[in-house]
Write a structure and sequence with these properties.
This is DUF4376 domain-containing protein. The protein is of the alpha+beta class. It has helices spanning about 60-65, 80-105, 110-115, 115-125, 135-140, 145-180, 190; strands spanning about 1-5, 10-15, 15-20, 30-35, 40-45, 50, 75. About 50% of the residues lie in helices and about 15% in strands. Strand 4 and strand 5 (about 40-45) form a beta hairpin.
Length: about 200
Amino acid sequence: MRVTIIRDDSVVGIDGVFRRIDLSSLRANVRAVQWNDTSGHIEYDDTANTLLTNMAEFQPFVDLWKTAPSEQITVLTAPGPDQMKAAAVARINAAYQSDIRELTAAYPEEEVKSWALQEGEAKAWFSNPQAHTPWLDSAADARNMNKADLAGKIIAKAAAFARVHGQLTGKRQRLQERVAALGDFPTRQQLDDIKW
């Protein structure tokens, strides 16, 4: 089942049939929802799209569609090729962002923000033990840990993260290239076949 929810138009579409639905209970920052049988994405006003793996939150709007009077069916223009390609790219990007978030989920945001600094100081220290490394010095002291051991851990974690991040980024780029390679008039099925 394909489901499309478009807040600004107050419509829900199921398998291409759109009906006007009261969307006042939709989360305020959700602009649109796209679902295609087993997965989809949520589009927001104020942040990047996110992957959708469960329709439970949006099932009430599907239920409203099912009970809406048939005279409320709204004829909408089918999305054009550019819109379909943009939706496919948005779906790919949402899946990518979700996987990246999983990589960093165990760490507080402020620590993640310091990763480049940590890696930079660790590499600088290994290159020159006299290098100025205030973050590394403070962290080693607070952990009651040998500076060389901490620098080694930082470098190892950075390398592991870089490998996985590179794989995910390469996958995203490859899938986006497949979308672009379909040309100006892809079919919906061709786009749907490009899965994360």
